[in-house]
Amino acid sequence: xxxxxxxxxxxxxxxxxxxxxxxxxxxxxxxxxxxxxxxxxxxxxxxxxxxxxxxxxxxxxxxxxxxxxxxxxxxxxxxxxxxxxxxxxxxxxxxxxxxxxxxxxxx
Length: 107
Known about the structure:
alpha+beta; single chain; flat; 30% helix; two-stranded antiparallel sheet; two-stranded antiparallel ribbon; disordered C terminus
């Protein structure tokens, strides 16, 4: 699956404790990526989505440094949860990436 949806092969939904997983997602289907031996191929999976979320986390850490703050893990998690948003309306034409928060903020 390509586009702003969770891939067909992804697990999602309620947990035994009635939480919703995954809490943060990024596009991981049909991603153009470099491959071993040189060149490029379109790949799908967690290994394609993880760099998107990791990059957002790095931006969050840069924000903390800029603010001269040390976030506790729960504060940083909440920063990630509350700042993730659907960016479809920000771009016209080809979507560069898509990140959507599917979970619920923990209290």
